[in-house]
Design goal:
CATH class of the largest domain: Alpha Beta
Structural class: alpha/beta
Distance between the termini: 22 Å
Number of domains: 2
Number of helices: 10
CATH architecture of the largest domain: Alpha-Beta Barrel
Order of helices and strands: EEEHHHEEHEHEHEHEHEHEHEE
CATH superfamily of the largest domain: Enolase-like C-terminal domain
CATH topology of the largest domain: TIM Barrel
Number of strands: 13
Helix content: 25-40%
Shape: globular
């Protein structure tokens, strides 16, 4: 029998985090503490974002209360396969962040409750990551760029689509002048109109852009297929993958749209087992991919980083640099150094 405790927590941003969809000053998460008969506790994090995640955030507390009853009927899993079987039996597909959180808690529990969700030797983990530059006025964005460059990042990712397009071109031009070798990624979060997206992508291509995530809004398959086919910048699908849970539908999406990259977020896409399937399908069809966190606390970020480290053959820069965004993040040994996600020698974690 497993006992589930749920703790609500509000993370406070150090600044108003802007995307083309709006601003965030704080966000709610729920920590799941899953304890077995021997008193071992596994920790998970449920971290949806209002209006971006497919589930209704206000419905999550009610469901988590129901989940307490479901977990009382379960025995502690002994294998990953058992973990994924339990989660699929008690959490619907339409609640991907809950699936992610429960998988994490069960995997941590299975591995002894030490926050070693996938790796027992976390000191060896070194994952190359991009430095994320948030939207804001020109001065704010340029200050972030300078800081990321000074911190040794070889890949910079800029959010675009909220400022005047000419102003964004100027910022990108200034960044490219700093280095010809710097990898520049863009993320539009669906901000561009289908009527002029190809013209904007052509203008952006002058600056040797690695890729652009989700240039137009999802659920426009014919338009997205055209963009993927004709864009002068490689296209990475992000929001386009939300809610695509059936294996056949996933294959169809890859074959029909022919994206250059997939951006995979365990919280958003239904947990680790679901992301594993996306990775397998992407590899089969010759599509590159990287893994990105979803503004989780250091608890969720830790699990995602350990999962990402299972794929050392993937040389892309991953998106795991969100741990320093909050005033009140959970104390952890997570360190970002010279553009790599890694861990400090002292394995010190704060209380949840």
């Amino acid at each position: 029998m497993l006992s589930l405790e749920v703790k609500r927590y509000i993370l406070d941003f150090k600044f108003s985090a802007r995307t083309s969809r709006g601003e965030m000053k704080d966000r709610k998460v729920w920590f799941l503490k899953l304890t077995d008969e021997n008193g071992v506790t596994g920790l998970g994090e449920v971290a949806p974002i209002h209006r971006l995640s497919p589930e209704v955030v206000d419905d999550i507390p009610v469901f988590l209360e129901q989940l307490k009853t479901s977990m009382k009927k379960m025995r502690a899993p002994q294998t990953e396969a058992e973990v994924f079987e339990i989660v699929s039996s008690v959490v619907p597909l339409g609640m991907p962040s809950v699936r992610f959180g429960l998988e994490m808690a069960l995997l941590d529990l299975m591995n002894g409750g030490q926050k070693h969700v996938f790796s027992r030797d976390i000191q060896k983990i070194q994952v190359p990551i991009n430095g994320l530059v948030w939207m804001g006025d020109e001065a704010f964005m340029k200050a972030q760029i300078k800081a990321k460059m000074n911190e040794g990042f070889e890949c910079i990712k800029l959010k675009v689509g909220a400022l005047d397009f000419d102003a964004e071109l100027q910022i990108i031009s200034s960044l490219r002048k700093l280095s010809n070798d710097l990898v520049i990624r863009l993320d539009a979060n669906g901000a561009f109109d289908t009527s002029d997206v190809l013209f904007k992508l052509r203008d952006l291509s002058k600056y040797n852009i690695h890729s652009i995530e989700q240039p137009i809004m999802p659920m426009q398959p014919e338009a997205m297929e055209l963009v993927c086919n004709r864009s002068e910048i490689p296209i990475a699908l992000d929001e386009e993958l939300i809610g695509i849970n059936n294996s056949r539908d996933r294959v169809d999406l890859i074959q029909d749209l022919k994206p250059h990259y997939l951006v995979l977020k365990p919280t958003l896409h239904g947990g680790f087992n679901s992301v594993k399937e996306w990775i397998d399908l992407a590899n089969i069809h010759g599509v590159n991919w990287w893994i990105t966190s979803y503004l989780e606390s250091n608890i969720g970020l830790n699990a995602i980083a350990q999962f990402t480290s299972l794929y050392p053959e993937n040389k892309e820069f991953h998106g795991l640099g969100t741990g320093g965004l909050y005033h009140n993040n959970i104390t952890s040994p997570i360190v970002v150094s010279n553009g790599y996600f890694t861990y400090a020698k002292s394995n010190v974690w704060g209380d949840v």
